[in-house]
């Protein structure tokens, strides 16, 4: 097990290596064998654990002295073990903790040189269904912090520059012994920057960024829907002290349309037809969002509420090929203003109705009659 391998060998350093050499060797190896870099590789994971064990021991002067004298025996069966305990068993506990303490946050990032990038921003934009159909080039104005031009984002008066923090020596972090571990914290003097600005830039008051209106050209692709998100890389808030900016996310909202409702790529509309067209059949014409007129055949005897589908009359597929369908829901209208002549014709028509012509209504009346008899009996 790990207990058999010499800690100095593991870290590939001389026995005389000083703290700095140890740390840099550890950092190099930890990066190489970190589980994030070697997903699923048990060998790397084991090696990563061993390296952490070795470094935790050798970076502590007391532990190191004990190790130099007694070797691994110093940490076995409680022999010579100090405050840490449980060290020799390979049960190292929270590797993540020590790793983060040393590297300062997320793997790969960390270190004061890679300052945090600016915040991501959200911008809500309402567009018409027509615009969603055709796509649109538009301009938006966003109030967002941007890199201060006079100081170039440094926060220092132009011509001057930030001075290295003398509390942390430019490290951005100060170290403190906390029980078994050496813990690093953000430097209270420079707040982790490693630098102090003695003469702050007047434009940004040392912030390195200023709020300003930004006008952005936005290209909205055809087929976008409610909730579609468009990312404008680097258009979010400027990072502090010249750090890279965040992203701007455009959230789209589609306005209600007078005629069409949208479900995915399907466009739905309701169309009134006369009862004569419903009875005799015919054709209706629907002007689509695509600018074309879609002729739709009405079969004779159609009922109110029936949906008719026209292939290809719907919304375009976002970043894809083809278009959805156009669905027309039929509503049969009952005439309200009949001329004397029309009434006469309809009465004549009514007289020809025997009930046989319309099997559905015949069944309906019989059912009502039965129900009525049941109630009166
Ligand atoms: Zn400092
Ligand atoms: Zn400035």
TrEMBL record:
Q: Where are the zinc fingers (CR-type)?
A: 135-213
- What's the stated role of this polypeptide? Participates actively in the response to hyperosmotic and heat shock by preventing the aggregation of stress-denatured proteins and by disaggregating proteins, also in an autonomous, DnaK-independent fashion. Unfolded proteins bind initially to DnaJ; upon interaction with the DnaJ-bound protein, DnaK hydrolyzes its bound ATP, resulting in the formation of a stable complex. GrpE releases ADP from DnaK; ATP binding to DnaK triggers the release of the substrate protein, thus completing the reaction cycle.
Which residues are noted in the entry as Zn(2+) 1-binding?
148, 151, 201, 204
To which protein family does this belong? Belongs to the DnaJ family.
Q: Which PROSITE patterns match?
A: DNAJ_1, DNAJ_2, ZF_CR
The main location is cytoplasm
Question: Per the record's keyword annotation, is Cytoplasm included, yes or no?
Answer: yes
For domains, the record's comment is: The J domain is necessary and sufficient to stimulate DnaK ATPase activity. Zinc center 1 plays an important role in the autonomous, DnaK-independent chaperone activity of DnaJ. Zinc center 2 is essential for interaction with DnaK and for DnaJ activity.
Species of origin: Novosphingobium jiangmenense
Q: Which residues bind Zn(2+) 2?
A: 165, 168, 187, 190
CXXCXGXG motif repeats mapped onto the chain: 148-155, 165-172, 187-194, 201-208
Q: Look up the record and name the cofactor or cofactors this protein needs.
A: Zn(2+)
Q: What does the UniProt entry say about where the protein is found?
A: Cytoplasm
SUPFAM superfamilies assigned: Chaperone J-domain (SSF46565), DnaJ/Hsp40 cysteine-rich domain (SSF57938), HSP40/DnaJ peptide-binding domain (SSF49493)
Assembly and partners are described as: Homodimer.
Q: Which InterPro entries is this protein grouped with?
A: DnaJ, DnaJ_C, DnaJ_domain, DnaJ_domain_CS, HSP40/DnaJ_pept-bd, HSP_DnaJ_Cys-rich_dom, HSP_DnaJ_Cys-rich_dom_sf, J_dom_sf
Positions of the CR-type domain: 135-213
> Know the name of this protein?
Chaperone protein DnaJ
Residue ranges constituting the J domain according to the UniProt record = 6-71
Q: How is the cofactor bound?
A: Binds 2 Zn(2+) ions per monomer.
Q: Which NCBIfam families match?
A: DnaJ_bact, PRK10767.1
Q: Which keywords fit this entry according to its UniProt record?
A: Chaperone, Cytoplasm, DNA replication, Metal-binding, Repeat, Stress response, Zinc, Zinc-finger
Q: Name one Pfam family in it.
A: DnaJ
